[in-house]
């Protein structure tokens, strides 16, 4: 079977996803086009050779509707002959794009594919694609879950309660995310993966100087009397500090075979070793990272101790902390350059953002294996193992 290798991975800096954020003035089409254009410029690959561009985007409405990936590819100057599609697996959309790209390359359907992602949350707010819908569940789903499914913030609180994660642990993890991101930025660790845009040269959401005492003054972000009555086990400890940031950004990854890379004189950065996707209880919603990790490790024939670097989506601090407790992963190897709590979480772009960071981290540290996993709305998760080449 053919292999699938990553020859380049780039991303924009992540901007604050609100009016006045550094990237708020950039149309989502241009936001994604910037990463696509930078990707082909860095590789020197003629975009006419690209068999498909697969882009993750969650809120596919308004400026992000109408197959934004195709419009971004055209905006990036790709030939008319290059097709593109937009996919939605919630927060893991662009990680799923990598899976689809790798599967296409390995099967022989593609020789070159680009996996990408974008989200401009300042211009297309989270939930915009279902806003105004009187009923998004229908009859059968409502019958299966008569009490109703819940928002992710409540799921994060349920996870904290079930795995016994304290407020102090969450706040300490959040401070650590910012400290690691700040140190990586100051050391230039992100420089090779960043494609500055609109004057933004670094991730905008990183904060320094926080303390446990300061974070202890923050109020719970999701407390609700009705939910408190429904879930008396919740202690209401998740705050804005222990949740990911609303953000703008894009990322793009070039996938091909090692043979094609050699023909063009490209040096592969990593091989897409194994991948998996899993589902779990949609009420807890964010726990599928656990079975997805188990599944991908089994498929790869590896153990958790074989992994040199992990990128685990910091949707909420308790998700990563519960995942580490369940899997036995060494937290000192997890998100070593910070995560979404500090760097931000531009939904559709986050999967490709994490993978871009993972590829470059493996290259810089000399690690062999990297594992990425992301929790996703609806109780799903993707997991990918990369092998540095």
TrEMBL record:
Gene3D superfamilies: 3.40.47.10. Pfam families: Thiolase_C, Thiolase_N. Its EC number is 2.3.1.16. Residues 267-388 form the Thiolase C-terminal domain. The active site is at residues 91, 345, 375. The keyword Acyltransferase applies. Residues 5-258 form the Thiolase N-terminal domain. Keywords: Acyltransferase, Transferase. GO terms for molecular function: acetyl-CoA C-acyltransferase activity. The keyword Acyltransferase applies. Belongs to the thiolase-like superfamily. Thiolase family. NCBIfam families: AcCoA-C-Actrans. This is Acetyl-CoA acyltransferase. It comes from Leucobacter aridicollis. The lineage of its organism: Bacteria, Bacillati, Actinomycetota, Actinomycetes, Micrococcales.
